[in-house]
């Protein structure tokens, strides 16, 4: 069971970026974890706990986000982009929190592996 999730940035955003050309999602997650958090994760150890497909009204595009569980030490490798790092318990999340992050956390807590939000009817 997921008890804590790492969130970053003032708006409580999780670690995120884009895949490099020719990079698998597992390789990309492992690379980002190393680059942003000083975490070494083997691709075979990644544990996806949720997939979120949301519509972003700001840019009119759909975004697919994958959430992975991690327990261990972290370090801030991007202090120019991130003031601090913390683990938050799911019952004590910071405010404000980004809407799609809040939705994903609720779905993870409910044991649902997929959510689709924000798409026009």
Could you characterize the architecture of this molecule?
By secondary structure, the protein is α+β, with helices and mostly antiparallel strands. It has one domain: Nucleoside Triphosphate Pyrophosphohydrolase (Alpha-Beta Complex), CATH 3.90.79.10. It is 20% helix and 27% strand. The chain has two helices and five strands, in the order βαβββαβ. It has helices spanning 25-37, 99-109, and strands at residues 4-8, 47-56, 61-69, 85-89, 114-117. Strands 3-2-5 form a three-stranded mixed β-sheet, covered by helices on one side. The chain has a two-stranded antiparallel ribbon with strand order 1-4. Strand 2 (47-56) and strand 3 form a beta hairpin. The relative contact order is 0.25. Mean pLDDT is 78; it is low at 1-14.
Reconstruct the topology from this structure.
Elements (H helix, E strand, L loop, with lengths): L3 E5 L16 H13 L9 E10 L4 E9 L15 E5 L9 H11 L4 E4 L4
Parallel strand pairs: 2-5
Antiparallel strand pairs: 1-4, 2-3
């Amino acid at each position: 069971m997921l008890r804590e999730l790492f969130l970053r940035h003032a708006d409580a955003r999780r670690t995120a970026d884009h895949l490099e050309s020719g990079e698998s999602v597992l390789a990309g997650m492992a690379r980002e974890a190393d680059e942003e958090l000083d975490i070494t994760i083997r691709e075979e150890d990644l544990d996806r706990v949720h997939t979120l497909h949301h519509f972003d009204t700001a840019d009119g595009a759909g975004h697919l986000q994958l959430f992975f569980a991690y327990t261990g030490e972290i370090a801030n490798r991007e202090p120019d982009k991130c003031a601090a790092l913390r683990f938050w318990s799911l019952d004590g999340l910071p405010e404000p929190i980004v809407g799609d992050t809040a939705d994903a956390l609720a779905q993870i807590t409910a044991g649902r592996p997929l959510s689709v939000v924000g798409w026009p009817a």
